[in-house]
Write a structure and sequence with these properties.
Structural class: alpha+beta
Distance between the termini: 32 Å
Number of strands: 13
Radius of gyration: 29 Å
Mean pLDDT: 83
Helix content: 55-70%
Shape: flat
Low-confidence stretches: 113-175, 561-570
């Protein structure tokens, strides 16, 4: 029997799978899913071209009809197939041949245990589930999950392999909570005020829902693009990962307002609940309606509201209509401009002056003032922050508002990260879907050096704010920091919002697959042409990695026009040391000496207090000055001083420790270079095993036995 069976021509069987190429339906006998058209076409090609090397050009000609497509487009489709068919063994069915292409080989169909000639189509068994209400489906899923969990626990207990444990410090997974999306409210434009009122009601309702422990609510940021959408409920639900969607409208009749709402199950497209509210146009009535809607959503999804949930929902933020308006004007300015918009601050100030008991507005004001005091302390501003904190403590003791405000103060002003973390965790327990609380928690986790916990927080942010490409970028960066490169690259390839920075990151991570520094450089140059800017840091790194030092110098000579594309990480430090390193690599004595004198003078002025301190630790630059002159002892000394200053800031240490390894390599300091690289490649850092040890900084130690052993170790890890 061949590895696959095809009956009729468009129907394939291999392993546990059945695939209908005409429809794109892929079934394992239990679940049937429909592949994207391009992915289905690629699978058909691989099934009909087994055991044959297919280049990327072959795939483009056959699957993409010869159109010009990027490597990312091909990689994304192959990644989807691998994750779907063989999630635990990415090369099991589709093997990558480095720098040449792909070879596919599929197993013979599994025998039918009942002896039936053809299994019953999976779609016939699963289709009725789409008509089952959400809470019933969720119950079935929970029961199946529990059976699976019992099996895993039994295996871990009686088997010979230890059970996997969650990462230390990571918050518990909360994947069973239903996810609700609230579409922007439609409105009747009463005297030009309809949009403002609808936006306010929408924002307030999201804030109310964010307090309920047993559901998760998609953030306002991700919902704004659906304001005037004509997409179906199913499409929106798929975009957002939502189980249920609330849509509604608001209108005003005289001194009354009306809100119509309906909650729709995404999978079955059936109504779970609907209602209409007619009330007097007063803040107390507006908030009361939102409380009733939030409670009704919980009941419709058959989740239990705790006494704490009910107490938080019943709290009245303000009874002052003018304060209510000022607050929402501030929120609008924040969303449309930024938290630094003057209208944001002035709106908050007006809101709290009109209603001094409006704690929700006070919290936003505290956050803004605390952030302004992160880099430089203003005693008068800090005194006001402390007065506001006392006011919130008096008005709303043991509230999410209080814990959030105190977390802002403790993090930004006091910089007591341990205490700030305890406070933000208390706030998050009371507002589990508040993305700003989760975002603050992730910042604190970064400062504490708990990057794995930060990764988990960013995963939650992606769930709460799925249409925001920022969280995909930040997740990929932090997965890289924790050396989870495969997941980082998969995250970028699966991204719906590919932008410049994501493309630069993906290009760097793909070096692990192809190991071709010339290709890395060409890809970055192409991205620079495509976006009008890429990343000077990455472009420079790709040039020195490919030993094109003249090209690196040419890039830096045009730095004036490229400076806007110097981004993550450590832009000021890179601007300072890249010219020095390039001249050292070129061995241009006169120009190197000029760069060394400039760098020494600038850092001396900083250390003497003549110039303001830069965004990096000056001793790190001085270590490069010493390394470039061959002064090993002075290089070691400057790095000891650098480490003494930054070791308490674990975020800064993680982002800059690879620079220390490079300086040691330039100075040919052994065994410190190998020790530095070993720790950087196992602890959070930006050093990667597929790029860092191969850079020219380490030419002076490359022949050492310990360094050769390190290269062997990193090569074996790359192959895993």
């Amino acid at each position: 029997m061949s590895a696959t069976e095809s009956t009729p021509a468009d129907h394939f069987r291999f392993g546990q799978w059945q695939f209908d190429a005409a429809t794109g339906d892929l079934s394992d006998g239990a679940v049937c899913s429909r592949l994207e058209p391009q992915v289905a076409k690629l699978l058909t090609y691989f099934l009909t071209h087994q055991n044959v090397l297919s280049s990327r050009d072959d795939l483009i000609a056959a699957v993409w009809d010869g159109r010009i497509v990027s490597d990312d487009a091909i990689n994304r489709c192959i990644s989807i197939l691998r994750h779907t068919l063989t999630p635990g063994q990415k090369n099991a069915y589709i093997e990558t041949v480095v720098r040449r292409g792909f070879i596919s080989h599929f197993p013979a169909p599994d025998p039918d245990p009942q002896g039936n000639p053809e299994p019953e189509p999976a779609a016939d068994r699963t289709e009725p589930v789409s008509h089952v209400p959400w809470h019933v489906r969720k119950g079935i899923a929970a029961a199946l999950a529990m059976l699976g969990l019992l099996f895993v626990l039994g295996y871990a207990w009686f088997g010979d392999r230890p059970a996997l444990q969650p990462a230390s410090g990571s918050p518990p997974a909360q994947t069973d909570a239903p996810v609700v999306a609230v579409l922007p409210f439609a409105h009747s434009d009463f005297a030009g005020d309809g949009a403002f009122f609808a936006n306010g009601v929408h924002d307030d309702l999201l804030t109310q829902l964010a307090q309920i422990e047993s559901i998760r609510v998609i953030s306002r940021t991700s919902m704004l693009e659906y304001r005037d959408t004509d997409r179906s409920i199913a499409e929106i639900g798929q975009d957002l990962g939502a189980d249920a969607i609330l849509e509604g409208s608001v209108q005003r009749v005289g001194d009354q307002f009306r809100i119509n709402v309906q909650l729709i199950d995404v999978q079955s497209d059936t109504h779970l609940w609907a209602d209409r509210y007619d009330r007097e146009l007063l803040p107390a009535q507006i908030f009361q309606v939102q409380t009733e809607i939030a409670s009704a959503i919980g009941k419709a999804l058959q989740v239990t509201l705790s006494a704490e949930d009910s107490g938080q929902l019943a709290a009245l933020p303000t009874a002052n209509m003018a304060a209510y308006r000022a607050y929402h004007e501030a929120m609008t300015a924040r969303d449309r401009v930024s938290v630094n918009a003057p209208e944001y601050l002035s709106g908050l100030e007006r809101a709290v002056s009109l209603d001094p008991e409006f704690t929700r507005a006070w919290v936003h004001l505290v956050g803004h003032l605390c952030y302004q005091n992160f880099s430089s302390h203003d005693p008068q501003s800090i005194a006001r922050i402390e007065e506001i904190l006392e006011l919130i403590r008096t008005q709303a003791p043991d509230s999410a508002d209080l814990w959030t405000a105190q977390a802002y103060y403790t993090y930004y002003v006091l910089r007591d990260y341990e205490q700030a973390y305890d406070l933000v965790k208390r706030a998050h327990l009371m507002r589990p879907s508040d993305e700003r609380v989760v975002e603050l928690r992730s910042y604190i986790e970064r400062r504490l050096g708990n990057f794995q916990a930060r990764v988990d927080s960013i995963r939650l942010l992606r769930k709460l704010d799925p249409r925001n490409p920022l969280w995909t970028t930040v997740l990929a960066i932090n997965l890289g920091l924790t050396h989870q490169y495969a997941e980082a690259l998969a995250t970028l390839r699966d991204s719906r919002f590919v932008d410049r920075q994501q493309s630069v990151l993906a290009s760097m991570l793909q070096v692990q697959e192809h190991g071709d520094f010339e290709r890395w450089r060409a890809e970055l140059d192409a991205l620079h042409s495509e976006y009008g800017a890429a990343s000077v840091t990455a472009m420079w790194s790709s040039r020195i990695a490919s030993r094109d030092y003249a090209g690196a110098l040419e890039l830096l000579d045009g730095l004036g026009s490229l400076s806007g594309s110097i981004d993550f990480p450590s832009a000021p430090l890179n601007v300072e040391i890249m010219p020095l390193i390039t001249q050292w690599l070129l061995a241009d004595g006169d120009r190197l000496q000029a760069e060394l004198e400039l760098a020494q003078t600038r850092q001396d002025r900083v250390l003497s207090g003549e110039d303001d301190p830069p965004d990096y630790q000056p001793n790190l630059v001085l270590a490069y000055v010493s390394a470039a002159t061959g002064d090993v002892d002075q290089t070691r000394r400057q790095l000891r001083l650098w480490r003494r200053e930054v070791i308490t800031d674990k975020a800064e240490y993680a982002l800059t420790r690879h620079y220390a390894c490079r300086a040691l390599g330039m100075a040919a300091a052994m065994p410190e270079t190998v020790q530095c690289l070993r720790s950087a490649l196992t602890e959070p850092s930006l050093a990667t095993p597929f790029i860092e040890p191969h850079l020219p900084f380490y030419e002076g130690v490359r022949g050492e036995k310990d360094f050769a052993a390190l290269l062997t170790e990193t090569a074996s890890k790359d192959a895993e």
